[in-house]
From TrEMBL:
It is an enzyme of class 2 (transferase). It comes from the Bacteria. CDD domains: PRTases_typeI (cd06223). Its EC number is 2.4.2.8. Residues 22-168 form the Phosphoribosyltransferase domain. NCBIfam families: PRK09162.1. It catalyses: GMP + diphosphate = guanine + 5-phospho-alpha-D-ribose 1-diphosphate; IMP + diphosphate = hypoxanthine + 5-phospho-alpha-D-ribose 1-diphosphate. This is Hypoxanthine-guanine phosphoribosyltransferase. It comes from Chitinimonas viridis. GO terms for molecular function: glycosyltransferase activity. Keywords: Glycosyltransferase, Transferase.
Length: 184
């Protein structure tokens, strides 16, 4: 099967775990929670590329207080369904010394990605580093016991997901709804 046919088939056979409307409602709740905590903090928001693009694009316009936005690029899955060593493609460039930093990503799975980013931001002098993810995957393989995000939209089951920033072989990041690959 060629790649395009495979990509179309994966979506046709996928299980929709959360509809567009459910994700949208979760983002509303997240935005309210983030606002409550950070409305006076003048945070520096870091979007984690590539997966955090949709999360940030949907969450940030819901935040009606002053903030700055930048990006970093760190990846450890590539086209695979299991993560490897974290590859920093672009490190943060803004001065975060003394700042409250909010990291925005699509998913907290094992948490190695966010753990490394949090550590890096603290080393760079951030006063406080908070994290926001659209989904937290429920399982007992977190990077360390108690690893969690500060703001979570939805809890999802332990399957390989795509949509809302998460890719299947580079495709289908461009949905709001969240899907699980058939059989994975
Ligand atoms: O909690 P973890 O097990 O570390 O996994 C979470 C990370 O995995 C995905 O990124 P990925 O490495 O697939 O890169 P991408 O964002 O470019 O797709 C996702 O966007 C998170 O950043
Ligand atoms: N696309 C995708 N990327 C991930 N990164 C960590 N977990 C996942 C997942 O379930 N799907």
């Amino acid at each position: 099967m060629n790649m395009k046919d495979e990509i179309v088939k994966v979506m046709a056979e996928a299980d929709c775990l959360h509809s567009d409307a459910e994700v949208s409602a979760a983002l509303d709740r997240m935005a309210a929670d983030v606002t409550e905590v950070l409305k006076h903090a003048n945070p520096l928001v870091y979007v984690v590329l590539n997966g955090g693009i949709i999360a940030a694009g949907q969450l940030l316009p819901r935040l009606r207080f002053p903030l700055e936005v930048s990006y970093l690029h760190a990846t450890r899955y590539g086209d695979k369904t299991q993560g490897g060593r974290l590859n920093w493609k672009v490190k943060p460039t803004e001065d975060m010394h003394g700042r409250t930093v909010l990291i925005v990503d699509d998913i907290l799975d094992e948490g190695n990605t966010l753990a490394a980013i949090i550590e890096y931001c603290r080393e760079q002098g951030a006063t406080e580093v908070l994290t926001a993810v659209v989904v937290n995957k429920s399982h007992d393989r977190k990077a360390f016991p108690g690893m969690h995000a500060d703001f979570v939209g939805l809890e999802v089951e332990d399957r390989f997901l795509f949509g809302c920033g998460m890719d299947y072989k580079g495709f289908w990041r461009n949905t709001l709804g969240i899907y699980a690959v058939k059989g994975l």
